[in-house]
Amino acid sequence: MKDNKTKIVATLGPASDSPAIIKQLIQCGVNVFRLNFSHGTHDQHRANYNNIRNTAKDLGKVIGILLDLQGPKIRVGKFANDKVVLTEGDMFILSCDSDELGSQQKVSVSYKELYKDVVANDELLFDDGKLRVVVKSIVAKEINTIVIVGGTLGNNKGINIPTADLSVAAMTKKDIEDLAFGVSLGVDWVALSFVRKHEDLLLARHYLNLHKSDAKLMAKIEKPAAITNFDEILATADGIMVARGDLGVELSPQEVPMLQKRLIRKSRQAGKPVVTATQMLETMITSPVPTRAEASDVANAIFDGTDAIMLSAETAVGKFPLQAVTTMRTIANSVEKDDEYTARMLERQMHTEENTPDAVSSAACNIASNIKAKVMVCFSSSGATALRVARNRIQTNVIAISPKIKSCQQLSISWGIHPVLSPDANNTNDMVTISAAIIHKCNAAEIGDRYVITAGVPFGMSGTTNIIRVEKLT
């Protein structure tokens, strides 16, 4: 076992969606592929899904697939000349009752109720904050603004309104259709964009249940309201994505690093996988090497204890997708070998919940560390026991055994977990036999090395973790 403990998520796109590149990305260290439904057709996503599954099977790898919904992103419409140049002091109108091509003076918006949600003096940000306007008045269904930071505004650029409490629905018609399509394919995770409150997740959960899907639900934290309501969002979601792009637009940039640390810490305490995303190696879209600042950013997220780090445009449309993944892997490998990193993970002890599975999982982690076990084996049908182990961030290698391929694929995003598909044990002797065979197959230990097993009796029943066993490999 030579896997990094910090997992890598890579976004597929035109630069990386061929079977040959997908194979190389997996070999470079990708654990989870993100299908970005803001772009591409259903046919393209189906082809990508099938290519990932077929390639993973050929390589004998467990690879997760994350569907990322577009969400209710508010955008300007199209311009007659594709773009306009706005100058400070210009008057500019946002029209909520028309889809006419825009001009130097006016453009349509995708959210037709926007005029109801903004008031005078609200600041609107275009194109990730590059341009800024202030609302002067609302007349009928037109928002009159004045430009305070000018620049070039192109077709379909995003609009952020940090001060407004938008009434836009959590899921658009497109999101609902995309979710239904994705779960029919069999995606492992569904990421909900622009989450503001836990009710947004309940709506997405309703649609997952409607389609009898066992996909896990990830909340993307990219709105100020999500920070305010984070505790209830965390309690409802199965995982968290710290989406620093929009978050950094709607909040002051200097706030984001501290928020990142807090969100990662809380997610880890809750035993929920957390992904750090957006602009991690941005210059590698066009350059074969990152800046030193980007390398430090990736390392910092790993030091924070994130489960996974994500590449977006770097692998989707960049010129160097393989180099970007390799760079992430080498940074993770370097950090994880550092004594400071080990010390940080060990000093952040997680509170043990007052239930048997959590107490047993925590005790097993302590035993594995104290006896310097080479590997720990978790029999985890649903993946819950493996998640409890992962949040402890122990340095011992961890193999999670499940009879369910879906559980294995969902665990591929979790820190330090090496998921293996295998029939469940029927008794304790069977448990030891299966553990030893898989340890040998994974080259995780040598004969005579000690290892720790966690499991539950009765075997095969979720939520029954109540056994710790220490064995020597034979």
UniProtKB/TrEMBL annotation:
Q: Does the keyword Protein transport apply?
A: no
Which Enzyme Commission number(s) are on file for it?
2.7.1.40
Give the molecular function GO annotations: ATP binding; kinase activity; magnesium ion binding; potassium ion binding; pyruvate kinase activity
Query: Its annotated pathway?
Result: Carbohydrate degradation; glycolysis; pyruvate from D-glyceraldehyde 3-phosphate: step 5/5
Domain Pyruvate kinase barrel residues, every copy: 4-325
Q: Which keywords has UniProt assigned to this entry?
A: ATP-binding, Glycolysis, Kinase, Magnesium, Metal-binding, Nucleotide-binding, Pyruvate, Transferase
Say if the entry is tagged with keyword Ubl conjugation.
no
Pyruvate kinase C-terminal domain: which residues? 358-470
Major enzyme class = transferase
One Pfam match:
PK
Q: Which family does it belong to?
A: Belongs to the pyruvate kinase family.
What name does the UniProt record give this protein? pyruvate kinase
- List the top taxonomic levels of the source: unclassified sequences, metagenomes, ecological metagenomes
